[in-house]
Request: fold
Amino acid sequence: MREALTPIAGIPGVIGTALLSADDRCLTSALMPPYEEMLIERVMRGLRHALVTLNVTLDSEQTWSGLYLRCDGGHLLVRRIGEMVMLVFGQPTMNVAMVNVGLNVAAMKLRVGEGSGVVPTPPRPAAPAGSGPIPRTSSQRIPMPVRSAASGPVMGWSAASTTAAGVVPRTTLDVVLRALAKQIGASAQTVMLDELVALGLAPNNVPFASYTTMIDRLAQHVGEPGRRTAFVIEAELAGIHTATQ
Reply:
């Protein structure tokens, strides 16, 4: 279980994270002093009481699934995963979007772990192959060069281009493309570019804010549920790896 917390704990600005049971016992954690498991359990009991009270006040039949609090001193994210609950504490500078990606990955890891105990590990991003600038219009597909079958496909762009702040690096998108190709084959290039065009994006201008949306859309093209989960875990872990560099 602790392995599911590791990517989140490594995101800049995260103070600590913990996984609790349905009865608010701390199952595992990645915390630093003065944060302690006993204190986290007490916090979760108070939060659960507040959430139940809120449900009654709103006369809602739906149970809560998560909570996000932003305070002067930082952030608190609570995510329900089956019968378990994950808490993440962060500094004011914490990248909330990447923590949400990390929570998605953690949830899938825990569910996969319940079934088989095996979670795929993404490869480290490889250096991109330069190709010329990419022409792009709303009615045209963006041409992409192809590496040898051994190394897999790679997105096409100018080798001299640089990654702007808040934009997903091209090497990370290469990892996503290869992860998709492992699941659906040679059509991965066309699928990925079509989805980027549908989102109004280009391979050299995918903001981190759109990363999870892009992955969700790509995952819809993977028919078998196990393969779809494997792709999403690999792709989103690549995004977390990028955010922690």
Q: What stands out?
A: Residues 164 and 205 are 8 Å apart (CA to CA). The first helix runs from residue 2 to 9. The two ends are 24 Å apart (CA to CA). Residues 116-150, 157-162 have pLDDT under 50 and may be disordered.
